[in-house]
Amino acid sequence: MTLPVCAAGRDRLRIAIQKNGRLGGPARALLATCGFSWREERDQLFCRGDEQPIDLLLVRDDDIPSLIAEGICDFGIVGRNVLAEETARRAADGLAAAFVELRALGSGDCRLDIAVPVEWDWRGATMLAGLRIATSHPCIVERWLRDAAIEAQVVALAGSVEIAPSLGQADVVCDLVSSGATLKANRLKPVMTLLRSEAVLVGPIAPLDGARGAIAHVLLQRLDAALHVGDRRLVTFEAERDRVPALLDLLADAEPPTMMRIDGSETLALQAVCSGALTWQRIEDLRRAGARRLMVAAVERMLA
Ligand code: PRT
Ligand code: ZN
Predict the structure, then answer these.
(1) Minimal CB count within 10 Å: which of 78, 166, 188, 251?
(2) Which protein residue's CA is at the shortest distance from atom 3 of ligand 1?
(3) Beta strand pairing status for 267-274 and 199-203?
(4) Ligand 1 test: best mutation among 178, 186, 195, most atoms within 8 Å of CB?
(5) With 60 as the cut, is the pLDDT of residue 4 above it?
(6) CATH 3.30.70.120, applies to 233-298
């Protein structure tokens, strides 16, 4: 792929995300929440930001760690499992660390699990000795086996890992699991977790400076704000002063509320940001405890 500007001396930021696949949609949505968007055209891998000095690269997830390591991109959004595999591969090749996980993004949750045939009576990791383990994360598995002093054969596969035992390619698997339905359909059961994964923001080890550093600062600040907002809700209501302690007990998950006195009366107007679900039941409980003129609103942006 030929990129329009070389890495050195570049003053625009570059972010790599998955073109297709599970993390592409959530990554685009998160960046849009941060106020960044790009016009994408079919088969286009490089999207220049018109409104902001940030360009987007649409790639396969496996390519993202190397793009950061080589300085072609500044940031990427990728599964922690992909980063961990590339980190283990670099270490096995004697290469220094070249990227770092900067933020956990709260989407794409999964686990990298060892799974064995359902009929096995699992008695611990030592059972793996002498077996063949099929996986798309061979470097993580090799390192784990080495650390656990277990001698087993790692069978590296690019995909369709779960079917390997029934095809006779392997005895057990080490694969990504979210619902577990695929394991079950292949008569396998998870017995150990090697890694808990989610989508993460990856970036260079040394912080960026100059123009790119300034844009990176804005990106990270907006990202933190977006992650902080999450599914927070703003609840506002009025109540008599003597009812307030009981009402605050019902809002134990709220950040410290703002209270204002109304017209020299004993009535207070309150507003609080809550992280828990504000269900109808909860709103009705607040009303019974003395809250009036209740309103719940989604929080779009927060900046401390
Ligand atoms: O084309 P490209 O190389 O970019 O994409 P890809 O095919 O390599 O990756 P993709 O899009 O399948 O996954 C991207 C990332 O999503 C992974 O690296 C993980 O970080 C994350 N993720 C979250 C998952 C899953 N959940 C998941 N369930 N990746 C794969 N799976 C597989 C799982 O192994 C099983 O085969 O999906 C299947 C269904 O899983 P169950 O447990 O719900 O049945
Ligand atoms: Zn991939």
Answers:
(1) 166
(2) 60
(3) unpaired
(4) 178
(5) no
(6) yes
